[in-house]
Amino acid sequence: MRQNYTYRGVKGMRDVFPEEARRYQQLEQRARDLFSQYGCGEIRTPLVEHTVLFERGVGQGTDIVNKEMFYVPAKDEEAGPDALRRMVLRPEATASVARAYVEHEIDKTAGGVQRYYYMGPMFRYERPQKGRLRQFTQIGVELLGSPSPATDAEAIGMLFDYLQSLSLGTLTLMLNSVGCPECRPGYIQALQAFARLKHAGLCEDCRARLEKNTLRLFDCKKPECRAVMAQAPNIQSSLCAPCRTHQDQVLLYLTGIGITPKLEWRLMRGLDYYTRTVFEVVSENLGAQNAVAAGGRYDNLVSELEGPATPAVGWSMGMERILELMPAAAPVPMFDVFVVDPGPDTAGTFAHVTFLRRQGVRVGLEHEGRSVKALMKRADKVGARFTLFAGSGADTDRIELKNMASGEQVSLTWDEIAEHIRNF
Ligand code: ATP
Ligand code: MG
């Protein structure tokens, strides 16, 4: 890495070169394949949204809105009310998906349950560190329109199947219920009463959370606060009957597909929009930033955004954290054929190579006039399956093709190459 470079990239944002990009592509392809089996289609929303969307959707008291927003300055002459002049780079996509759903009146035009997946960059102004970037990539799923616990199980099943297929080591699925507007207020009161008594044992941040964002007391990572919160009242015993039944059903459906979550009553999730089911997948191999994916049910978000009452459930996972856990795959050869001797007729060779590429053969050809020896080295390095020696002298039609694995060498015409390679 070059030191003190004038034009260096922005802190917490990464450059991804082809070899690593291929790992992203594999994850993306796997997601597209699997999610389409579940009837999900891709949704693409803009990277920039009005700030109010997240203030309303994610919530005023959350870290995302309070501390992590990446603001986009609007031009002074931008017309409209103040609220529409304030913009941010999106910190997450659930609110955007819900906004798009409402704005395009999907409930009226499409009907039924809408099943979406998305993938792309998210931006949060956090302190960059291992597993924590300012631009990171999420893949997520949102299922809108079903109140059924079976849909929670389906969403979790998709996530589980996806992660299972990647050999990421031991992952734990934690699950909890954060209740609903019926039973949550009573729990929050009980929690406040508890926390006021324990005021002295809490850090400054938590004392501030106590009155306004009481549930977030569980998010604090400081050992002293965690010790206090371990004694807090358990939300599971405050759930109303419908919330309890919902959770029991989710667990039943999950058991039926071989998934046993760990019930974790302290799991609350940092966003305002969750109702009932919340879950998180953690890895033991990631250190402090150990959450790979997280999500839950959000029955009130769409209506909060002035949409029709639309129960929904979804989740999101961080691709960089998954890549960190993924075993390095054996490198895939970049080329089928690498030209190590272009012969005297370089324009002819260039035309033939182009013709081969048009037939779907991946051909490496360099135009810098390097020696055969140097090009052999290069072919080896990029893992070419065959090397090619273009004809020289009288018979420019005959070319030699060498199988790099077996050492076998054959003499062919340009027209025969594509076919020959397909047989290996
Ligand atoms: P954390 O507790 O690690 O801050 P979070 O609750 O803020 O996570 P979510 O908003 O639920 O995260 O986002 C879902 C997933 O996106 C996380 O589980 C994580 O894998 C990933 N993620 C979130 N923030 C970042 C970040 N700053 N850098 C890299 N990945 C991230
Ligand atoms: Mg966070």
Structure explained in plain terms:
The chain has 16 helices and 16 strands. By secondary structure, the protein is an alpha+beta fold. The protein folds into 2 domains: 18-183 and 239-325, 2-Layer Sandwich (BirA Bifunctional Protein, domain 2); 337-422, Anticodon-binding domain (Rossmann fold). The strands form 3 sheets. Strands 1-5-6-11-10-9-7-8 form an 8-stranded mixed β-sheet, sandwiched between helices. Strands 13-12-14-15-16 form a 5-stranded mixed β-sheet, sandwiched between helices. Strand 12, helix 14 (346-358) and strand 13 (363-364) form a beta-alpha-beta unit. Helix 7 runs parallel beside helix 11. The radius of gyration is 28 Å and the shape is elongated. Bound molecules: adenosine-5'-triphosphate and magnesium ion. Adenosine-5'-triphosphate (ATP) is lined by residues 92, 124, 126, 131-133, 136, 138, 270, 289, 291-294, 316-318, 320-321.
